[in-house]
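Box 4.2: Ligand-aware structure prediction
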Amino acid sequence: MSVNRLPPYLAIPVALLAFWPVGARADAGDVERGRYLVEALTACDNCHTPRGADRYDYSKRFAGGAQTFSDKTYVVRGPNISPDQETGVGAWTDEELRDAIVDGVGRAGRLAPVMPSDSYKALTARDLNAIIAFLRSAAPVGAPLQAPQQRSGEWAPHPMPGAAAAFGEAWLADKDVRGLYVASLARCMSCHSEEIDGAPEYRNGLGAGGKIFRNAAGAVVASNITSHATNGVGAWSDEELKRAITQGLARGGSSLRPPMSTLSKAHFSKMSSEDLDALIAWMRRIPPKE
Ligand code: HEC
Ligand code: HEC
């Protein structure tokens, strides 16, 4: 049936719909909120955007990461998540993207745990939609998945206690809850907690450090960031903590090493003061560990 044969009382709403702003759709994600989340907290670029000499190559944003991640059960690289129809996720539905981002399930089944879905489970429905809207707003870049890509494991989820399921939007008004939310999305504790058999031990080792990262800077050990006065950061001032998080500087002012310095400069430097204050208040309450 063509529009001009509709009865007059139907023709008006149809005409209105044609001009309905896309942003007014109930589930339409807020692109700027998505940009903030991705750039300041979730750091998707870290594994999904190629790098130039010392920074991300934004001309190929989300076209796939440079690093290869390997473990006993997988060898993977961050795939193309730009909106390219053929080689990216342009043809994926919002539902498929949600499954990948918070449940760690891709089109071909479970994703290797390098994709940190456990840290993103806390995303509010609004924030998850905002991230998807931001991904969709990026330029499509054609770049096929780079080999090697192998998975042969079953991986149990390890979300942080209290952050295993979507938060309600209204909860974020509470500073304590916001601090936990920021810590989860920014993956602070997945790097800074003790590990047993390759999995974070949040119950007794939250923030205790010890995990080793091997990169160009050598073997870098994640620091104890519990409230312990001497082994942790209990004696640090708020300003010293902020400087470490947003500028990648140690307490004495020397430069921290990657991956902390990279994340600080490229991402955490963009954290809003509200999120940063909430994060620090939350960190101060992590029980001290030797
Ligand atoms: C620490 C590295 C890392 C970060 C940070 C990261 N990812 Fe991933 N992601 C991966 C890896 C590696 C894979 C592929 C895993 C596999 O093949 O099993 C992946 C897979 C995906 C997939 C599935 C794509 C496909 O073709 O199968 C999507 C979608 C995705 N990530 C989106 C995101 C978004 C959005 C963010 C930020 C909110 C993000 N990722 C942050 C490493 C990361
Ligand atoms: C990808 C892993 C990773 C993530 C994510 C991460 N860190 Fe770090 N962080 C490290 C490593 C490794 C070091 C040690 C760097 C060094 O010794 O040069 C470090 C150092 C630090 C330090 C300095 C401590 C000291 O004693 O010098 C602080 C504070 C810190 N991180 C807080 C955080 C917070 C808060 C977050 C989340 C917003 C976070 N980190 C996210 C790996 C990480």
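In the box above, the bound molecule is heme C. Residues 186-188, 191-192, 213, 220, 222-223, 225, 233, 241, 244-245, 250-251, 256-257, 259-260, 263, 268 surround heme C (ligand 2) (CB under 6 Å).
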